[in-house]
Amino acid sequence: MGVWELLLVGVVILLGLAGVLVPGVPGSWLVWAAVLWWALTDPRALSWAVLVGATVVLLLAQAVRWVLPPRRLRASGATTRMAVYAGTGALLGFFLLPVVGAIPGFIGGIYLSERLRLGGHGQARAAVRTAMRSGGWSVLTELFACLLIMGAWLAAVIRG
Question: Among 67, 84, 89, 123, which residue has the least CB neighbours within 10 Å?
Fold first, then answer.
């Protein structure tokens, strides 16, 4: 697979990550489709293992999401700005503190967004609690699964 094709797969994965944060966009399935495209174009044992792992991770994430309360983020006052901050925090956390940093990065992104909007620490903490109870855990579960898949794909591409 050439460099341009790998870049296109990476762009589709990034679009899928952004799609997780946008209601109604099948972000996790975009990530899975990108990995499927890569595995079909570059048929090696490693690429197929990443595809199987991605499928298992997404199915587990869906099972966990069914147990969590339904998403009602808009009703809780969640904004697009909050989603951007949360997604950026999760992505930065994923790379700065490998893998597990996505969770505090996501929550920290929501906190920062609300702290800038509301101005106070107590109000921001209450807003984070409300956002996480209103579906934030569901979004975090799906985003974390997609970040794991992206990390596995990136490691496989770098490994060659």
Answer: 67
